[in-house]
Write a structure and sequence with these properties.
Blueprint (H helix, E strand, L loop, with lengths): L7 E5 L4 H11 L3 E6 L20 H4 L5 E5 L5 H13 L2 E4 L5 H5 L3 H7 L4 E6 L13 H7 L23 H21 L4 E5 H8 L1 H9 L9 H4 L21 E5 L10 E5 L5 H8 L13 H4 L3 H12 L4 H8 L6 E3 L3 H6 L1 H6 L2 E6 L3 E6 L22 H8 L4 H10 L4
Parallel strand pairs: 1-2, 1-4, 2-3, 4-5, 5-6
Antiparallel strand pairs: 7-8, 8-9, 10-11
Helix pairs in contact: 1-7, 6-8
Bound molecules: oxidized coenzyme A.
Oxidized coenzyme A binds next to helix 1, strand 2, helix 4 and strand 5.
């Protein structure tokens, strides 16, 4: 049984952050009605196009399991249709630039008047404050949320990460807010406003870096490689390269084939409890009892030497062999997987994390399925809708228009 069955979502989202959220709700069983501008729709339909005349992967991969309704919300008839949608739906999700909903005539006050049970959820770049009116994209959020200043190497510039923590990360946060507000509504009968600011979401994901900022007051961050290398700390959390974020030193090390394959690497953590096993595996049994190496504290100033020795060993093995040898020994390692490897990985296909989808315009493509698995409510990935594909069925079956009234909406040009 679909967990969110019966919940209707008026989906006013576009690009990535908002669509990530509504796609999750759709996977959990909500009826997500994506309202798009007639003629063009979500701008991503036509961005990074790889198959001419077909919706881009950018769009299809973020809009599964939704229905599409085209509606000009600046047209008078369009506004009437929108008002009926607001009355019929449980949740409205939007990620327009600040003020766009108000300009459309559908700010929170008006929404509440039309439907007091409505949950109105928004992604914005910033929360209330000096930047609240700014338009924001992924990398802006990564920079303003502290991710860029703490990512990269100490001798290099701030760096953004390929994981879309600003967009998709915020969409995830918003989805949790919506489901929580639905639970609250069940108890109180009232809707509420839900806001996830991209800066806040990135800061939340960078929590451990604010931890380290405060620890600096107590002295150098000893688990950072720079400490062992004798590089002084400044007054802010530095970039830590590939150091692991916890107290256990970790690095990315070369594996067999690294000189030809840019991803022939493994992550390797020198977990304190696994030290004897690590030493045995790499043939350095003398280090197990040697007081110069035996304790995590003693090793802190010798991490380059320690990881150098481990790398001499990992370079004789493939990243998969390292995994096979280390896992049974409780040594935490992880192969650096390329997107090609991920897309070909059999087990990810079997769990539905990577899914092949058929699309009428573009044929088959791969996508990421629902990353959260519910035992009683498994998510089945269905292709994204074509622009306006569900106009008629939504106008008739959801909104109850028929006969001359339906015809007058069509004639008004409100749905394109
Ligand atoms: N019919 C008629 N008009 C419509 C419409 C429809 N169906 N859907 C949208 N519009 C109009 C809106 O009313 C608005 O018009 P006004 O500016 O005249 O009020 C406009 O289209 C939407 O504008 P926008 O400012 O949101 O879009 P943009 O391309 O200029 O900005 C973005 C895009 C993402 C920067 C901005 O929406 C934003 O900052 N959103 C919040 C943060 C966010 O989600 N960022 C991440 C996006 S994913 O990388």
């Amino acid at each position: 049984m679909e967990a969110l069955k019966g919940i209707k979502v008026l989906d006013f989202t576009h690009v990535q952050s908002g669509p990530t959220c509504t796609q999750l709700l759709a996977w959990f069983g909500a009826d997500v009605i994506k309202v798009e501008r007639p003629g063009s729709g979500d701008p991503t339909r036509a961005q990074l196009v790889d198959v001419p005349e077909a919706d881009s992967l950018y769009f299809t991969m973020l809009n599964h399991n939704k229905r599409s309704l085209t509606l000009n919300t600046k047209n008078e008839t369009g506004k009437q249709v929108l008002e009926r949608l607001v009355a019929k739906c449980d949740v409205l999700v939007e990620n327009f630039a600040p003020g766009a909903m108000e300009r459309m005539g559908f700010g929170w006050e008006q929404i509440q008047k039309i439907n007091p049970r409505m949950i109105m959820a928004s992604v914005k770049g910033f929360g209330p404050g000096p930047y609240e009116d700014c338009k924001v994209y992924e990398n802006v959020a990564q920079c303003a949320g502290g991710a860029a200043s703490t990512t990269g190497f100490i001798d290099g510039p701030p760096t953004v990460t390929g994981a879309q923590i600003g967009d998709s990360g915020t969409g995830l946060h918003l989805a949790l807010g919506i489901v929580t507000a639905l639970f609250h509504r069940q108890n109180t009968g009232k809707g509420q406003r839900v806001l996830a600011a991209m800066q806040d979401s990135v800061i939340n994901l960078c929590r451990v870096k604010l931890r380290d900022q405060q620890r600096l007051a107590a002295g150098p961050l000893e688990e950072y490689s720079q400490h062992g290398e004798g590089i002084e700390f400044g007054d802010t959390t530095p970039r830590a390269g590939n150091d692991s974020g916890g107290g256990q030193p970790g690095r990315i090390l070369k594996c067999k084939g690294w000189d030809k394959d840019p991803n022939a690497y493994t992550y390797f953590i020198t977990q304190a409890a696994a030290w004897p096993n690590i030493c045995t595996a790499i043939g350095k049994t003398g280090w197990i009892e040697d007081p110069e190496y035996a304790t995590p504290k003693a090793r802190l100033t010798k991490l380059n030497e320690v990881f150098g020795a481990i790398e001499d060993w990992t370079m004789t093995k493939t990243k998969y062999e390292v995994m096979q040898i280390c896992n049974p020994l409780d040594i935490p390692v992880g192969p650096i997987l390329s997107m090609k490897e991920i897309s070909e990985e059999k087990s990810l296909r079997e769990t539905g994390t990577i899914v092949k989808v058929e699309h009428p315009e573009r044929g088959p493509y791969l996508t990421v399925g629902c990353p959260v698995k519910l035992s009683a409510s498994p998510a089945e990935v269905k292709r994204s809708p074509l622009l306006g594909e569900h106009n008629e069925e939504i106008l008739k079956n959801v909104l109850g228009y028929e006969g001359p009234e339906l015809q007058s909406i069509i004639d008004s040009g409100a749905i394109g």
